[in-house]
Amino acid sequence: MPRDPARRDATARSSLAADNRSATSARIPKGIANRLLVRSMLYAQGPASRIELGKRSGLPLSTLTTVGSALLRQGVVREAGEAKPSGRGRGRRRSLLEIDRAGLGALSMSYARGTITATICDILGTIRWTKSWPLAGRAGAQAERALVESALTALADSPIPRTRLLGIGVADPGLIDRRTGRSIRAVEPTGFENVPVVSILAEATRMPVFIERADGLEALGEAMFGAGIGARGVLFVSAVANGIGGGLVQSGEVVAGRDGAAGEIGHVHVGGDLLCGCGLHGCFEAHASPRRLLERYRAAGGGRVSDLGGLAREAAAGDVHARSCHHDGAEIIARVLGGAINLLNPDCVVLGGQFADAGPQLIGRLQVHLERYALPEMVRGLSLRSATLGDRAVAA
Q1: pLDDT band for position 112 (cuts 50, 70, 90)
Q2: Residue 45 and residue 57: Cα distance in Å, rounded?
Q3: How many CB atoms lie within 10 A of CB 104?
Q4: What residue spans of the chain are helical by DSSP H?
Q5: Cβ distance 326 to 365 under 8 Å?
Q6: Do the strands 94-99 and 48-49 form a parallel or antiparallel pair, or are they unpaired?
Q7: Of 101, 93, 35, 23, which Cα lies nearest the Cα of 65?
Q8: How far is residue 321 CA from its own chain's centroid?
Q9: In whole angstroms, what is the distance from residue 362 CA to residue 260 CA?
Q10: What is the C-alpha to C-alpha distance for residues 254 and 247, in angstroms, rounded to an integer?
Q11: CA nearest to 64, candidates 54, 79, 74, 77
Q12: How many CB atoms lie within 10 A of CB 178?
């Protein structure tokens, strides 16, 4: 071990970087695998002594002493007081190790609604830095280069040292394949199909990269830090101007499905021949997206409101056209939610995006309509909530 403090810190940072790169490698050296195992156990289960970690992991105490020292040098863990002796109070007190959550972080990358956004968060969910760049007019290879340039800028400007960043999470607004790390079909940028996002960013940054559906990450953010706190099973359904998406979180993990694409609730068939942007007919999204509901309102003679929040306010104020569209929209939403609730039996349904903007009025109508579409045993005890994190949910 180098005696010079600067060299010692550099060695620790290099070691952490090697661990992070190996997190997505096919073959992981035994020492790094042990450190990754202990990191994950401390993150998931909270502070523990080396002896407790040995009982849980099966690793010998000598190995855990080495692993604990390495993680302390890296700054991944810190000592968190002492565990009380077992039995009658006799025996040596054991120091506890815990993840240094404020000192570690990750980079979140997203591309949607005409922008690329990069956000640095610590693993307490606190946003420490964020910046957006215009995406309009960039397609294909240009969009790929813009994504790489944005990530490199974020890493250079990060208030958390790059060596303390555990990885990069990518929020994709379309269909993904987790196994290959590809964006299969994104809503935007134009021409962003079958793009190997994970390998592109990993090669440019030399960091572990993970891709997830944006709606899945929003669901996880709300479950961990927002409206879904305390619920074991969270069904998240969100609306943007021309789309509806969703995600399911069970016991703190996104339910991904076969490829990572699970959650496309907007493309559940509800009947009729309305053409959806996905190419199918009769999708939930085609009938109840904010754009579609506002078009119906204006066609019926309503005024000009820009979102579902405005439509809900007009309905509450007595506008008969707004009330009719609001109630019809709520009935369609309840029909799809009822089927999902019967299938998944969540503790909590969180409404995000413009559904959240519609607030208590929408939730009140859904509670009435759900009695027709979900089994009473499934609805009993179910909580309907509006999302609280907004755009921060993806990064958190």
Answers
A1: confident
A2: 12
A3: 23
A4: 5-22, 30-45, 50-57, 61-74, 140-157, 197-205, 214-225, 284-288, 290-299, 308-316, 320-344, 354-357, 359-373, 376-379, 392-395
A5: yes
A6: antiparallel
A7: 35
A8: 36
A9: 30
A10: 7
A11: 54
A12: 18
Is 100 in contact with 113 (CB distance < 8 Å)? no
What confidence tens digit (pLDDT) does each residue in 46-104 have? 999 999 999 999 999 999 999 999 999 888 899 987 766 555 555 566 789 999 888 88
d(Cα 22, Cα 202) in Å, to the nearest integer? 12
Nearest to 72 by CA among 95, 106, 44: 95
Strand partners, 117: 110, 132
For residue 271, which phi and psi values (nearest 5 degrees)?
110, 165
Q: How many CB atoms lie within 10 A of CB 18?
A: 13
Token digits for 348? 């909590």
Per-residue model confidence as pLDDT tens digits over 184-204: 988 778 778 899 999 999 999
Nearest Cα residue to 334 out of 375, 366, 356, 372: 366
Sign of CA dihedral 125, 154, 215, 364: positive
Q: For residue 24, give the amino acid letter.
A: T
Q: Name beta bridge partners: 130.
A: 119
Tell which residue, 284, 286, 265, has the closest CA to residue 274: 286
Q: For 58, list phi and psi in degrees, rounded to 5.
A: 85, 0
Strand order, beta sheet including 253-254: 253-254, 243-250, 233-240, 348-353, 383-386
How remote is the C-alpha of 111 from its chain's centroid? 14
Asked whether the beta carbons of 251 and 234 are under 8 A apart, the reply is no
How far apart (Å, rounded) are the C-alpha atoms in residues 224 and 218?
10
Distance CA(248)–CA(233), nearest Å, equals 7
Q: Which residue, chain included where needed, has tokens 């610590």?
A: 122
Question: Are 278 and 289 within 8 A, CB to CB?
Answer: no
Greater confidence (162 vs 2) lies with: 162
Q: For residue 82, what are the contacts with CB-CB under 8 A and spacing of at least 6? A: 93, 94, 95, 96
Task: Specify the residue for token string 């958190």.
Answer: 396
Contact 200, 183 (CB under 8 A): no
How far is the C-alpha of 169 from the C-alpha of 221, rounded, in Å? 13
Tokens matching residue 106: 């990750």
Report residue 351: phi and psi, to 5°.
Answer: -100, 125
Q: In the prediction, which pLDDT does 8 show? A: 47
3-state secondary structure of 363: helix
